[in-house]
Amino acid sequence: MRRRRPAARQRAVKRARPTRTMLAAMAALAQEARERAHAPYSRFKVGAALKTRTGEIVTGCNIENASYGLSMCAERVAVFKAVSEGLEDFDVITVVADSKRITPPCGPCRQILWEYCGDILVHMTDLKGRSRTMRLAELLPLPFDGGHL
Ligand SMILES: [Zn+2]
Question: Catalytic annotation on 85?
């Protein structure tokens, strides 16, 4: 069994910015995943696409439950799918939603992303083609992680 590198060490890895073409491809995959969202309660569909540095892409959609607290966000579905498949060393996540403002990952997703992805690039898009890209460290300043334990 491989040991996952702590996020703190991943931050030291050289950052290569993804191309517009790559971000567009990831947004398209995230939109496809969004269509598979199970959101009968909120009707707020979200899709995500998570990429490794070697180019593997794993998608996720939000999955709700009648017991609301059991619902899972698209970002975490993508991360957990990827981790369960043995993938690591992620560099970009794309999140697609349809709302008045660009939708960023929620607090718990930011924490999970930090744990497994470190200071990943977060590309937030919507169905109108608007987008915003930020580093996770901007979205989660002063993060709590294994370095504190
Ligand atoms: Zn979330």
Answer: no
